[in-house]
Amino acid sequence: MIIHDFECVIGIEVHAQLKTKTKLFCSCPTTFEAGDNENTCPVCMGMPGVLPVFNKEVLNFAIKTGLALNCELDSASVFARKNYFYPDLPKGYQISQYEKPICKEGYVDIVLADGEHKRIRIERAHLEEDAGKSTHHGNYSLVNYNRSSMPLLEIVSGPDMRSPAEAAAYVKSLRSILQFIEVCDGNLEEGSMRADCNISIRKQGDTGLGTKVELKNLNSFRFIEKALTFEFERQVDAAMSGETIIQETRLYDKDKNKTYSMRSKEDAHDYRYFPEPDVLTLTFEEALVDKIKKDLPELPLATAKRFVSDYGIPEYDAVVLTQSKALALYYESAIADTKNAKAVSNWIMTELLRELNDAKKSIEESPISAKQLAKMVELVDAGTISGKMAKDVFAEMWKTSKDPEQIIDEKGMKQVSDEDALLKIIEEVKAANPKQLEEFKSGKDKLFGFFVGQCMKASKGQANPSVLNKLLKANL
Amino acid sequence: MIDKDKVLHIAKLARLHLNEQEASQYAKQLSDVLGYIDKLNQADTQGVEPMVTASPIETVYRADEPKMDLGVEEKIKNAPETSGHLIKVPPVVS
Ligand SMILES: [Zn+2]
C-alpha cells in the first residue's frame, strides 16, 4: 500500500496469555470470572520476602509455541527485572525475559486476500508476567491484582508488514496458530491476546527505518486495520507538511476512528533491567522438545493446504476456514456428511460467517449445526430444493435451529421436478395467456422468459428451474 | 561516575524524596561502589560465559495445580485503603 510515494513499515508485538491453570510464578488460579483480588496471594501481590517459583506448564507452552513459529529455542533462557513505578505492578518491577528470551528467529507464513504468500519473521518470543489492572476515578485509583503474574508470551515480529491489511492477516494467522496448538484463547476483546502495532513510514525504495509510533488499545482485527490506516495517513500528512514524527505511544479511539498521543512521561522507558536473582535460569532437556514436537498438532496452514488438495476449494477459502480450530472442525464435520465440499465451503464463507459476524457469535455458538448445513447441501444436490429455496431454508435454520427437512415440510417448500406435474402447469399457463403464446409462436423469442416466470409463479416458486426450462422449450 | 543529577533521576524513578545533601552523599557513595566494579571490569574475561546467577542449579519447577491458602479479606488486609475488595491508591492518571 502506497500513499504519495510513501510506504508504511509495520512490526507487531503480540502478548499472548498462556492458558495454564495457574499463574507464572505462583499457584493462584487464572480463572477469568473471579471476584476482585480473589485470585491473588502474597507472591503476585508483591509482599516482601516471597519467592516466585516457575510453572512447568508455561515452559511446555513456550516450547510448543516456539516450534509452531519455527523458532530457535534457547535451552538456557534468563529472566530479568524490568523496573518501573506503577500501582498495578506491586513489586515495582516486572519479571520478564530480556537479553536471553526462550524463542528467537522464527517465522509465520501468511496468505493474503489476493492469494499472495508472505513470510513474516518472528524476531523473538519471551516470557513475562502480566501486571494487575487499575481503574481511575479522579482523585483515586483502584487496583485489582487478579491478572498480576498471569503468564504472557510476548511475540515480536520483524518490521515486515507493508499494509494495514497485511498486519491484520498476520495477527489472524498468529492467533489461529496459538489456538490450534491450544496455548492461548486468542480473544482480542477480552484481552487474552493483545497486539501492539509499531508503524513508521518511508519513501518507497528507501531501506532504512523511520521514526516509529506504537499503537495500543486495538482489541479487534478491524480496529487493527483501521487504526493503522489512520496512522499511516496521519504520518504521510505530517511528512508532506514538513512536520517531524515523534516516537511515541498512541491510543486508538474507535468511536472517532483516530489515534491520539498518550503523552508518556520522558522517563518512562528507563527500565534499568538487571538479571532477576529470585528466578533461576530456565533450562530444559532436548528430550522435552522432541516429545512436544512429536505431539504437535497439524497447524492451520498445513490444514488449509490439505483442504485445498483433498476437497478442491480455493486456497484463500481454505485459509479462512482454518482461521480457528473450531471453524476447521465445523467444516470437516460438515463434509463428513456430504460429498459436496465446495458447496459447504461456499455456504460457510458467504452466508454463515456473515451471519455469525453480524450476530457477534463464534462458530461454537452457531444455531446451524455442521450436520444440518451438510443436509441442506445434500437436499440441493438431490434436487429436492432449488438453490434459491436453500437461501430461505438457511435463513429459517439460522432463526430456529430446525433441521432443513422439517423446515421444507412445514413450509411446503419441496421443489417440483415431476414432469407430469410441470406439464400440467405449462398447459394451464398456455391456456391463460393465448395472446402471448401467439406472439411467441410468430417469433417473439424473448417471451420465453415470460412463460418461465408465469410457470414459476403458478408453481409457487417450487418448479425445478432446469426441468421446467427443458419442458417449456419442447412444449410452447 | 555517578553525579548528583543521576542520583536525583534514579530517586525520581523510584519515587524517593532526597534532599540536596543526601543526593550529594549518595552520589559519592555510589561512585565509590561503581569505581570498584570498574576495577573488576579490568579483569580479562575473554571467552568466559557471563554469570547470570550465583546459584547455578537446575531450574526448580512447580506443577500447574491451583492452590489458594488465604481468603480475599486476608489478602487485602495490609492495604492502607480499600474499596470493596479493590485496593485504593493515590490517583495515577490525572
Ligand atoms: Zn499469586
Explain the layout of strands and helices.
The complex is a heterodimer of chains A (476) and B (94).
Chain A: E1 2-3, E2 6-17, E3 54-55, H1 56-68, E4 72-73, E5 76-77, E6 79-83, E7 93-97, E8 103-111, E9 117-129, E10 133-136, E11 141-144, E12 151-157, H2 164-180, E13 193-203, E14 213-216, H3 221-240, E15 248-253, E16 258-261, E17 274-275, E18 282-283, H4 286-295, H5 300-311, H6 315-321, H7 325-335, H8 341-358, H9 370-381, H10 387-400, H11 404-411, H12 419-432, H13 434-441, H14 448-458, H15 465-475
Parallel strand pairs in A: 14-15
Antiparallel strand pairs in A: 1-2, 2-12, 2-13, 4-8, 5-18, 6-7, 6-17, 8-9, 9-12, 10-11, 13-14, 15-16
Helix pairs in contact in A: 1-4, 2-3, 5-6, 6-8, 7-9, 9-10, 12-14, 12-15, 14-15
Chain B: H1 4-13, H2 20-41, E1 61-62, H3 72-76, E2 82-83, E3 86-89
Helix pairs in contact in B: 1-2
Bound molecules: zinc ion.
Zinc ion binds at residues 23, 26, 28, 40-41, 43-44, 149 of chain A.
Short synopsis of the structure:
By secondary structure, chain A is of the alpha+beta class.
Please provide a written account of the structure.
The complex is a heterodimer of chains A (476) and B (94). Chain A is α+β, with helices and mostly antiparallel strands and 476 residues long. Chain A has 3 domains: 2-291, no CATH class; 299-411, no CATH class; 419-475, Arc Repressor Mutant, subunit A (Orthogonal Bundle). Chain A is built from 15 helices and 18 strands. In chain A, strands 1, 2, 4, 8, 9, 12, 13, 14, 15 and 16 form a 10-stranded mixed β-sheet that branches. In chain A, strands 7-6-17 form a 3-stranded antiparallel β-sheet, with no helix packed on it. In chain A, helix 6 crosses helix 8 (341-358) and helix 14 (448-458) packs across helix 15. The radius of gyration of chain A is 29 Å and the shape is elongated. The mean pLDDT of chain A is 90. Chain B has 94 residues and is mainly alpha-helical. Chain B has a domain at 4-40: Histone, subunit A. In chain B, strand 2 and strand 3 (86-89) form a beta hairpin. The longest helix of chain B is centred in the first third of the chain and has 22 residues, at 20-41. Chain B is flat and about 55 Å long. The model of chain B has no long low-confidence stretch (mean pLDDT 87). At the A-B interface, strand 3, helix 1, strand 11 and strand 18 of A face helix 1, strand 1, helix 3 and strand 3 of B.
